[in-house]
Amino acid sequence: MAMVALLFVITGVHAQTKPNVMILATGGTIAGTGATSTTTVGYTAATVGVQQLIAAVPELAKVANVKGEQVFQIASESMTNEHWLTLGKRVNALLAQSDVDGIVITHGTDTMEETAYFLDLVVKSRKPVVLVGAMRPSTALSADGPLNLYNAVIVAGSREAVGKGVLVALNDQIHSARDVTKTNTSTPDSFKTPELGLLGYLQGGKAFFYRASTRKHTFESEFDISNIATLPQVDIVYGYANMNPVALDAFIAAGAKGIIHAGVGDGSLAARVKPALIAARKKGTLIVRASRVGQGILARNGEANDDELDFVAADTLSPQKARILLMLALTKTSNTADIQRMFYTY
Fold it and tell me: Which residues are the active-site residues?
């Protein structure tokens, strides 16, 4: 009888040591359905609720105490600044609770890297936050969502992930929110960190980390959205041969407070567009030079005299991530020197 009681105590202790992980669902392909089991394109995203997602992976109960909450139910191409603010505030509120050890966010893959980076800059906790999605809908043969979700919960509940910033976990890999990007329209191995490399792997139900980002994030960040209702308008102007200033002029006329110029090469400024960028800056619009290339450092004072023009260089951030950092920077300052510091910090 004493042995049975001891066994009960031991198993009870083990049960209590499982991490408490909250799954916040926002929609996306991981919650999508197709007409047939072979439908992997042309499906409908964001049709399956969070409780169904959890029920489809009963193995979750073995690795964590899981609860779910439906925050949004949208395809991620429809993600807005307002969605980000709502999500960021909810994440911070949950992480402040002692009974939440980590958070998993199910998300569409189209803008996952952007939401992840936004949260990387505004989450105020060392606790793990992991974004996860799928490249195939839940109804497809070999759907990748269930295993991706299982792995994401493992990462969110792991001690190894504490303090490493917001993470993206898909295809048995762990990536930094700052550096990861979607690289393929449809294959399960779409998410990569092409130049700087992934952070780690998932294998055998365990997270293995091999490196960490050196850029500040989450608990080190100076950005605070707790009292912010709207974000400044920042738009992206894409560089190409025969480029003209029509799009730039339209964004400025529509009230853009900042422009990300996704230039060719090292952020080169086309002769037909440069005067419009200069004029916009003189009128108060912040200009950040980025590159459409996808890899490499954007050299300050390289293809343009940024000091003279009072422009900001995007460092290694993609145009879409540079937009996020500039929006948050503009909630604090309009000083270009300070904003440049932020681009070299985050």
Answer: 29
